[in-house]
Amino acid sequence: MLGSPFQTWRGIPIIPSDKVLIDAKGNTTMLLMRVGVENQGVVGLHHAGVRNEVIPSVSMRLSGIDNKSIATYVLSLYHSVAVHTEHALGSLAIKI
Questions:
Q1: pLDDT per residue over 62-92, tens digit each?
Q2: How far apart are CA 79 and CA 58, in angstroms?
């Protein structure tokens, strides 16, 4: 990638990120997914028709209004996956 070698998992590049949570002992865990029906991977499924739905599978609920008249809402996304083969998901535990 960009002229440098990189690691892959079943052909999927594992790209470093500063957004991965690392605990005090230097450990982290990642969920790896091969996506798409054509790759016999993972396909996302929406749960339409949820209570207080604003767009398909997204619910919005008023949480409260503070003393400055600022409204707070809770947004929930209802989403699940269909796994087409046992090798489409992987959990990777890393010691940094």
A1: 999 999 999 999 998 887 878 888 778 777 7
A2: 9
Which residue bears the tokens 């990777």? 92
Cβ atoms of residues 8 and 15 within 8 Å: no
The CA distance from 11 to 38, in Å, is 14
pLDDT at 65: 95
**φ/ψ of residue 88, rounded to 5:** -85, -15
Exposure b/e, 21-33, CB count within 10 A at least 16 = b: eeeeeeeeeeeee
Is pLDDT above 60 for 1?
Answer: no
Contact (Cβ atoms closer than 8 angstroms) between residue 36 and residue 43 = yes
